[in-house]
From TrEMBL:
Taxonomy of the source species: Eukaryota, Viridiplantae, Streptophyta, Embryophyta, Tracheophyta
Entry protein name: Probable E3 ubiquitin-protein ligase RZFP34
GO cellular component: nucleus
GO terms, molecular function: ubiquitin protein ligase activity; zinc ion binding
Domain called RING-type: residue spans: 204-247
UniProt-listed GO biological process terms: protein ubiquitination; ubiquitin-dependent protein catabolic process
Pathway given in the UniProt record: Protein modification; protein ubiquitination
Xref: PANTHER family: RING FINGER AND CHY ZINC FINGER DOMAIN-CONTAINING PROTEIN 1
Length: 313
């Protein structure tokens, strides 16, 4: 089958937040604040005073030198659930939510409930804040006080979505929160996606991972249902082109249907079947029609789709 360019631009999922300094539970000092804003490129660097220079130095110590496979960050977190210290919530979940852990004890870290962090430079345990209360280092250039998220790698363009209640990546300007779907979608979908109530609040129909806060890219099908980008790719590689939830075509199939037309025209049914009529229900437009039976497929009389099923002989 030919190349079926379809997929609407998806939205990426991860778990980070934005630069709303208003979230600070404990505000940095004015000096730290000015330096942070400069570091984040929000202010043209003004003439640096000596104090600014040393404050910057202090904040930037160890930048990109600490962290785990999931984040560059300069602190670890105390898990509120099991009271142990982990590099990040994913490290916690990897350790505490796998099949080797007794099923009763398996759990995920409730990210919003983290209260204490441990500075990676000086080891001081303290309440969640961006700048270490003891040594003055910035523990994460991207910091979300709501999600308790720290990340020194700001190239992900993290932002916190109040609608989602979590941090996402990809840049606030590239996404909008759809309150009907209950999720952030690419602005390219703003006027073109069919809304499905809480579209993301279910498991991927292929791999069964919960989609809302999945770290893998998720895409919206033309029917409005959602699925991992990679799972959709796999489906298509296996020549499955129908949404696993509602059976509508997952992409523009008109080129494929044209090939069906040709194939069917080239293979007339043998004599006894030539006048056999059947009723079909179209998975794409939802209408029924009575059409001539063919062993290859039945074409919807309304929308020309071959994505149909026979309802009665
Ligand atoms: Zn980690
Ligand atoms: Zn410290
Ligand atoms: Zn957040
Ligand atoms: Zn959102
Ligand atoms: Zn929507
Ligand atoms: Zn999946
Ligand atoms: Zn669907
Ligand atoms: Zn149809």
């Amino acid at each position: 089958m030919g190349e079926l360019a379809i997929e609407q631009p998806g939205f990426q999922h991860f778990d980070v937040e934005n630069r709303q300094h208003a979230f600070y539970e404990e505000r940095p000092t004015d000096n730290e604040y000015a330096v942070l804003r400069q570091m984040n490129g929000e202010m043209m660097p003004v003439e640096e005073t000596k104090d600014d220079a040393s404050a910057t130095e202090l904040l930037e110590r160890g930048y990109l030198q600490y962290g785990c496979p999931h984040y560059h960050r300069r602190c670890r977190i105390r898990a509120p659930c099991c009271n142990e210290i982990f590099d990040c919530r994913h490290c916690h979940n990897d350790a505490k939510n796998n099949i080797n852990v007794n099923q009763k004890q398996r759990h995920e870290l409730p990210r919003h409930q983290v209260q204490q962090v441990v500075c990676s430079l000086c080891g001081t345990e303290q309440e969640v804040r961006q700048v270490c209360i003891n040594c003055g280092v910035c523990m994460g250039k991207y910091f979300c006080g709501t999600c308790k998220l720290f990340d020194d790698d700001t190239s992900k363009n993290q932002y916190h979505c109040n609608g989602c209640g979590i941090c996402r990546i990809g840049g606030r300007e590239n996404f909008f929160h759809c309150y009907k779907c209950g999720c952030c979608y690419s602005v390219l979908l703003k006027n073109s996606h069919p809304c499905v109530e809480r579209a993301m609040h279910h498991d991927c129909p292929v791999c069964f991972e919960f989609l809302f806060d999945s770290r893998n890219d998720v895409t919206v099908l033309p029917c409005g249902h959602t699925i991992h980008k990679n799972c959709l790719k796999e489906m298509r590689e296996h020549h499955q082109f129908a949404c696993p939830i509602c059976s509508k075509s997952v992409c523009d199939m008109s080129k494929v249907w044209e090939k069906f037309d040709v194939e069917i025209a080239a293979t007339p049914m043998p004599e006894p079947y030539q006048n056999k009529m059947v009723w079909i229900l179209c998975n794409d437009c939802g209408k029924t029609s009575q059409v001539q039976f063919h062993v290859v497929a039945q074409k919807c009389a309304h929308c020309k789709s071959y994505n149909t099923r026979q309802t009665r002989g």
